[in-house]
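Collaborator request, handled under Task 6.
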Amino acid sequence: MLSYKINRSFICLLFCVQCIWAQNFPSRNYSAANELPNNAVRALFVDSKNVLWIGTENGIVSKQNNIFQSYFEEDGLALNSCWAITEDKQNRIWFGSYGGGISVYDGDDFQIISTKDGLVHDEIVHLFPYKDYMYVGTSDGVSRVDLKTFDTQSWKNEGSEALLRVSGFFEFEEELYVTTYRTGVFKVISEGSFSLNQVNDQKYIYSAFVDNSSILSSNKGHYTKSEISEYIKSEDLVSEELGSSIIWDYVKTRDATIYAAAWGIYDSNGGVFELNEDFSNRSNSFGIPGKDIFSLAYDALFQRLYVGTLNSGLYEIQLEPLIKFEELKGHYIKGFAKINGTSAYIHDEGIQIISSSDSIDIPLRKFKNWQQNYIDTTSLPLPKHEDHFYELDYSTAASDINFYDIKTSNNQYWINANIGLFAVNQDGKLDTYLPLHSEEINFTNDGRLIETNPYGGVRVYNDLETFSYHYYPQDHKDTPTMVVSSLQTENKTYFTSVFSGLYRYEEGRFKSLLNSKIWKEKNLRHIISYNDNLAISSEFGDVYIIRDRPESFEIVRKIPRASIQGNTISFLNSYDTTLIIGTERGITLVEEDRIIFLDEEQGLEQPFFSSKIANDELHIGSENGILRVNIEEILASSNRVIEIQLKDLSINNSVYDLPENTLNDLDLDYDENTVLLNFSTNTHPYPKKLQYQYRLNQDEEWSTPTSNSEILLPYLPANKYEVQVRVLDSSTGLTYSQNVLNFNIKPPFWKTWWFFTYIFLAIMAIVYAIYKYELAKNKRFERQKRAIQRRFEETKMEALLAQMNPHFIFNAMNSIQNYIMDSDIDNATIFLGDFAKLIRLNLDHCTKPTILLVEEIEYLQSYIRVENTRMNNTVEVHFELDPTIDTYDVEVPTMILQTFVENVFVHAFTVESIDPKLDIVFKKLDEHALCCKIIDNGSGFSTAGKNPLHNSKGLNLVKERLALLDYDIEDALKIESEPEKGTVVSLKLRLQR
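C-alpha cells returned to the collaborator:
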C-alpha cells in the first residue's frame, strides 16, 4: 500500500516558458439543469449593489452571494422573455421584454409600461438611461420614459419601409446617438418635442461600443474601430475590417481590456474574444465550449466576467483569480525541486529540468535504460530481500515506472522510484544509480544517504560506490519502521511513522521519541520546518507545532482537526509564520489565530500531488499542471464583509414588515415569540466561505457556526433582545459582527408589574373587604350581643327594680303602720296619697332602662316626701340643678339615685337628728358626663371601720346595675363619709340623649 504514497518533497518554479504553460481562468457554468429557468441568456447586468441580473428566454434571475431568485409573469413581469436590463438613478431595475414592453422593479413590485402607455413597440431590444429619461430601443422605433412621471414619448421613422431596429445607444459630446441595424445612425433631438435626426445611413450595425474617443461597431463577420467624430458623419466611412464574427455585446475591464461576445449565427466562429491586435479567442481559457455568445457583463469589484450563451446558460469567469492554473496537458505534477538556477519537476511521463536558457526532458525510457545499463555492467551483488532489502522488480517496464519523490543533495536531484534511486545533475545527466527500492530517503547533515525500508530496517551509506553502509536492524527499539515522511535540518534528520511515531537521527544514531517516552503520539505522517520549529501532522488530521531543543522537547501548539477543513492531510508547507495544510477539500492557512481556507470556489481544484513555496507563491502539483497561489495577496486580504442586511422578518410564521431602523426596539406581544430572521451580507466573491453565528445579548455565548443565513428563535421568553450576527469569512480568516435587530417581547399581562400591583391591590381590597365584613359582622354581633345584653340587663334591672319595690313598700308600710298605731289619721291619709303617687311612678318607670332626668327628679321628690313624712318632715331637702342641663333632654338610668336617698333616711337620720339636711346636686361635667351628688349631714360612718352601707342590699343592686351598664364602678361611684359629719355619694353618669 505504501507503493502508492503521495510524495511531499517539492521545488519552486520561478519562471515558466510560454510555449509550455498556458494559463486557465477559473470558471463556472450555470444552466437550466441547476440555477437558471432557461439556457438562452439574452441580457446580463450588474447593478449598483453588485447583484447580477440575468435575462433569459423564460424568466429573469438575480444572483447575489450564490443565491438565485427567479421572477416570472406570475410575479409581475410583463413577459418572461427578457432582452435588455439596466438601472436608473433611483436604483430601479428596468427589464425590456421581447413582446410585452417594459417591467420596472423597485425591489418590491413591478410596474409595466407598454404600447398602451405610449411605447412605440413592445419588442424591447435596448435600454439606455440618459439624464432624466430612460431611452428605449425597440424593433421599430425609439421611446423615452420620464424617470419621475413615467410619461412616455415615442418616435418612429415614418415613411420608411425598413424597420427602425435599434442596435444600441452611445453618448458623444453631451449628445445621445442611436445605432440601428439597417437604417443608419441617428442623433436624439431632446429640445422641444422628442425626435431623431439621421446622421448617416450605415447598414448592418449589430452593436456599438464607445472606447474613449473611439467607437467599435459590429457588422456582418467583422467589426470596425473608428473615431466617433468620423463615425457620425454623413460621408461614407472607410474603416479596416477586424475580427471574424458578429459581435453582439462588449465590456471593458478596469485594466482596459475589452471583451466581445460573438455569435456568427450561421457560422461556427463565435466565442469570447479579447479585442487586441490579434482578436484572441479566449473561450478555451475561460472554459466555454460553445460558440453562441450573445451577452456580457463585468463585475469590477470582484473582477468577474459574466458570459451569456444562447444554448449553454451562463458562465462566470474570474479574470484575476487568487489561484492561477498553469496547464501542462497530459502530465501529473508529482514533485518539485530546485538547485541554483535550475528547477525540476517530476510527472507521469518523466522529469523536466528547466533553466533560464533550456528545458531538458528525461523520459521514462531513459530511466529504464539507466537501470538496465547498471544491471548489465555492475560487478556488485544486487540487493536481495533475504539481506533485508526492499527488493526491486527488475522486469518493470518503462511505462510502469512510478516516481515516489524528488530531493536535492550535493547539487544533485535525487529521484526515488519503483525501479531504483537516481542522482541526476543539473544538465539532466545521470551521476549515480542505486538499485535501492525505498519510498522515503533522506540525508544526514554531512550528506550521507539514509535509506528506509518499511519492514527491513534502515541503512546509512558511507560510500555509494562500494555500497558500504551501516545497517540498523528493524527489531531495535530506536530503528525507524513504516516511515512515510522525513525532514533534514541543520543538525538532525527526522522520520515520521504511521505506527511508531517520531524518530530523529543525530550524531550517528537513531532515537525513537515514542520508546524514549518523550512524545507518546504514534500515528504521524507529514513533517516540515516551521518558524524554527517542526510542524507534524498525525494520521488522523491533527497538526502539532514542536520545539525540539537539546535541553527540551515541547509541544508549542496543537491545531485540532476540527479547525482544518478536510479529513486527510495530503501535505504540509510553510510561508514565514504561516502554516499551510493541504487536504482532500482544499488548503488551510494558519496564521496565529487567523485561519484561511481555499478550495474550488477560488479555483483550487483537486487532486494535489505536491507543493512547494516559490517566492510569494505556493505551487501545487496537480493533474494537468501547476496551481499557483499568491500567499502574500491572500494574507493581505481585508475584510470582505462590511455589512449585514436583514432581508426578511417573520413573526409566528407570518411575514412582518421590516421597520425602517431595525435597531430601534420592536415591541412584540408575549405570544409573538417565534421569530425568524433572514439576512445576507454585502455581495461577496466567495459566499460559500461564509458561516454565521448569532447571540441574543452581549453577555451570551455565540451559537455554533452554520452556513445557513437564517436564525429561528422559537418560543422566546419575555425579555429584551439585541440580535447580533457574526460572519466568519474563511476566505480571509476575518470576522465581522453587527447588530441586526433589537426587539422586546412584552410579558403576558399576568406577569407584568402592573398586573402584580393590581393583584396585590385586589388582594388588599379583598382582605380589606373581608376585614370590613368581619368587622361589620363583629359589630352586628356586638350590637346583637349588646342588645341581648341590654335586654338581659333590662330584664335583670326590671328584676332588680322588682326587688326594690317590695323593699320600698315594706319600709313605706311600716311608716303607715306607725301612723295608724299612733292614731294619726291625717298624716296617714297624706302619706297614703303620696305613697300611691310614688307607687304609680314606680310602676311607670320600673319597665324602662332609662328615664328623663326631670322624671328622675320628680320620682325622687315624691319618694323624699314619703320618707320625710315618715320622719315628721324634719329633713331639710334641697335640689340643686346645673342651669346648663336640659332635664327634658337628658336621660339617666331609672331610679338609680333612689337607693342612696333611701339610705340617707334609713341610716343617716333618726327622729332625734338635729337639723338634718339632704342636698341633691346635678352638675354637668362635660358634654357626655353628669355628676349627681347626694349630700347629708347625718350620722356618717368611718371608712376604716365597719361600713353600714357595706351590706346594703340596695347599694349592691345599684353596683350590679352600673356593672351591667358597662360602668367602671370605682370611677362611677364614690362614697365619702365621716362620723357625725354626714356622707357624700358621688355618682358619675353618661349623658344619654
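The cover message to the collaborator said: "The two ends are 126 Å apart (CA to CA). The first strand starts at residue 22 and ends at 24. Please let us know whether this matches your experimental observations."
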